[in-house]
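Input record, target 12 of the design panel.
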């Protein structure tokens, strides 16, 4: 299990070759992790974002993310998805319109292909005291508004 904040910036490798670095994580609206956006680095200072489907991730550890393929295509990118960078620092609201807190991080499992939990903050002063809550994300669908994420049970 990994957090999105841990994954961003990690190198993506195939064998010993570095394909690029993770720039974002993509989720479906029903809470599945569908893949990673990679800054592909073929030429120094020239970056191209490509999509790596979650099914092609073989392993994720402290050294990086490993895939079994050298070929990553931008054509494989799904049409509708949510990016972690769109979700972080937004207020989370449940079905009853109760504010749960501000989304700080998302725990994901590549083996299961799902979001496992949301790390939620109650604000700056709660963060200073080290108080963050973990809310399980199983069986929840997300709707993204301008400044809130609405969670609904499926």
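The sequence produced for target 12 reads:
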């Amino acid at each position: 299990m990994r957090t999105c904040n841990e994954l961003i910036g990690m190198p993506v490798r195939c064998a010993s070759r570095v394909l690029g670095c993770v720039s974002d994580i993509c989720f479906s609206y029903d809470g599945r992790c569908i893949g990673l956006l990679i800054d592909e680095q073929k030429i120094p200072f020239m970056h191209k974002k490509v999509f790596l489907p979650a099914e092609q991730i073989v392993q994720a550890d402290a050294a990086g993310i490993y895939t079994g393929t050298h070929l990553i295509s931008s054509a494989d990118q799904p049409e509708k998805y949510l990016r972690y960078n769109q979700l972080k620092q937004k207020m989370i609201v449940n079905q009853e319109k109760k504010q749960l807190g501000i989304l700080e991080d998302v725990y994901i499992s590549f083996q299961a292909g799902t979001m496992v939990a949301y790390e939620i903050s109650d604000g700056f002063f709660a963060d200073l005291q080290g108080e963050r809550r973990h809310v399980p994300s199983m069986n929840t669908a997300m709707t993204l508004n301008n400044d809130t994420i609405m969670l609904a049970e499926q």
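The domain at 2-83 is CATH 2.30.30.240 (SH3 type barrels.).
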